[in-house]
Amino acid sequence: MEWPIVGPAPVVAEHAAVFRDLFDNHCQFRHFQHYLTGLIVLPNKSMANIARCILDSPDKTNISRFLAEAPWREAAVNRRRIRYMLQETTPHRHRRRESLVVLDDTLCEHVGSLFDHVDRHYNHGDGTYPLAHNPVTSFYVSGPVRFRLGLRLYRRYEELTQWEAAVVRHFPDLKIPTEKKARNRLHKQVDPVLLQDPEFRARHEQFRTKIALAMELVEEAIRHKVPLGVVVFDAWYLAEDLVQVLARRRKDWISLLKKNRLLETASFHLRDANGWPLKLPGPHIAVDELVPLIPANAYRPVTVREQTYWCFTLAVRIPGLDKVRIVVSFEHESLTGRSVVLVTNRVDWSAAKIISLYLQRWPTETFYQDSKGRLGFNAYRMRSAEAIGKHWCLVFVAYSLLHLTCLPAVPERTRGLIQTIGDACRQQGRALIQQLLVFVHDQLSHGVKVDRVFERLFARQRRIAPA
Prior knowledge:
Elements: H1 10-15, H2 26-41, H3 47-53, H4 60-68, H5 74-88, E1 100-105, E2 108-109, E3 119-120, E4 131-142, E5 145-154, H6 157-161, H7 163-170, H8 180-194, H9 198-204, H10 210-223, E6 230-233, H11 240-248, E7 252-256, E8 262-264, E9 284-286, H12 287-290, E10 300-304, E11 307-318, E12 322-330, E13 340-344, H13 351-359, H14 362-373, H15 385-406, H16 421-445, H17 450-458
Parallel strand pairs: 1-6, 6-7
Antiparallel strand pairs: 1-4, 2-4, 3-4, 4-5, 7-13, 8-9, 10-11, 11-12, 12-13
Helix pairs in contact: 2-3, 2-15, 3-4, 4-15, 5-15, 10-11
């Protein structure tokens, strides 16, 4: 049995007024506070459990309507949250040129198929295709300050366009293959015909690749006047279109580089262990073909955050990306194990700086751990896309407010965070138990009998109603 909650979590009570004007009435604003409190302190984040545990909360259906039907706009809440976080974190943030936006995506896996836009997405971790939502996100990191900026839901082309149903409708005698290459061949065969259908074409025009969604998130961060100098992403997002947007916006970037990426051999010179120039075959060479050719004595130790990497760096040209600098790094002096190759547009940066900046993408991984494990980012059960989007929006609010409690009161006294998000959640839980004890004491002091107090506190959890 979970403890009853007699008021908003202290961190919610302290900061919620910033969002008050974004809700039409007091009831919506109260739902906003209740939902944030439930996300922060309750192990079970379901709407039913939040309604059951919060003393003056309405029933589950009212919370459901707050997410699915109430006219508040998640975009407005997100804008206000970002503006407030930038305002509150000013003393803690680093300079603009040292501040990052990290682009990434994650899977929110589900068992059922009744959720809007749920589909089978590839899980890079285990090679499976679970039913999931696949949000693409942007994350801000500036020194100890880190919080989520924006989100775009990626929808696979076939799910968005209802491609299989369209094929069956227009080509009833065709069998749709499951094998990827055969399916791609079928796309080339039938898609020109399907695009003549106005309904299918309208859905086709709504499709956005992950690269396009990432570009939207960068533009959104700039519109919100987020002070950033570098954009960091993994190899999946390293595309000419995104790099062109960053160049136009005068933002530097760092990415992982896929091992099959081609380098222009005429753009660099490589020497063997004796210092003799190596003749490279062809106009291009793949990264995984280049790495074995680099002599061991060309690697240099680079220490970043007390960790030493053995690195080789080179300025090269990559088709579609122009002149860039790559860094090949190993964790061991023996140059054994897996190598990691980073690439950046800044050919003047050292290997140490490139690695140091790229490592600052790690907080986005801890965000996913905290938001899923602590705040219910993927624990939603509402089915409509609008309600799911608002749930994600409120998880971002909860995380951001908790992060403020993790920053030191005096920035000069420490360079990092004073507690984790898990610590902050536990702290809020302890504060709510204290509120509960004070509430019980006040009730008893005013002559309310113990049985009546108990009935009021646990009526919903015991499924009884106070007399």
